[in-house]
Amino acid sequence: MSDPTAETVIPAPRPVRLPVAGASRVFPVHRIYCVGRNYADHAVEMGHDPDKEPPFFFQKNPDNLLCGAGEMPYPTATADLHHEIELMVALGAGGRDIPTERALTHVYGYAVALDMTRRDLQGDAKKLGRPWEVGKAFEHSAPCGPVVPAARIGHPDRGRIWLDVNGARRQAGDLAQMIWKVPEMIRILSTLFTLQPGDLIMTGTPAGVGPVQRGDRLHGHVAGVGDLEIAIG
């Protein structure tokens, strides 16, 4: 491994950090894992049978995060940008082969997030059997609110999750409807990767995903965690 104190030959990228609700210190981000089709009604609306699928994961990049309320620029190369409201899990400890019954001890906190998706590019990738990155891991594709410590709110496993676009309800569900619960996701991910402090897990979205346009205003909510509001620029 190279000397971490050595000067870089080009400017080093800035570390990615999320604000922590009610604190002056911030949460450093390592990786972002996303679980696909984790609500049965969303799996059905996307043309899949939730009873026949094991969990699967994809990734976004840490610098895809758009922190806090504000404006998300409409991305390039798409005419079909979709919203997906999600509960995000922030890990305070990592490890491998984490047992389900210990998994929540690795959680630092939770946040409200959006998995914004270039659905047309994702659809093309699916047809060709290619990775999803062009549809999922683009600039500003993960708007996210502050991390709320689990020490303050506990570990939400039920309660409403919803998204309004321009004041009209688009998505509505309950955290209890997740097929794979947070402890199970942590256990399974830890058999595939060595999880690290600072890892984020986006836990899937309920039914009702759909397109947004420039000028739309999005308001998402997760019970017990908080709200996230952004505008599409």
3D architecture notes:
Keywords: Isomerase, Metal-binding. Pfam families: FAA_hydrolase. GO terms for molecular function: isomerase activity. Residues 32-229 form the Fumarylacetoacetase-like C-terminal domain. This is 5-carboxymethyl-2-hydroxymuconate isomerase. By secondary structure, the protein is α+β, with helices and mostly antiparallel strands. Strands 4-3-15-8-9-12 form a six-stranded mixed sheet. Strands 6-18-17-13-14 form a five-stranded mixed sheet, with no helix packed on it. It has a single domain, classed as Fumarylacetoacetase-like, C-terminal domain (Fumarylacetoacetate hydrolase, domain 2, Alpha-Beta Complex), CATH 3.90.850.10. It has helices at 40-45, 119-128, 133-136, 150-153, 182-192; strands at 17-19, 26-28, 32-35, 57-60, 65-67, 70-72, 81-83, 85-91, 107-114, 117-118, 142-144, 148-149, 160-165, 168-174, 200-202, 210-211, 217-222, 226-232. It is globular, with a radius of gyration of 17 Å. It is built from five helices and 18 strands. The mean pLDDT is 94. It is 15% helix and 33% strand. The longest helix is centred in the C-terminal third of the chain and has 11 residues, at 182-192.
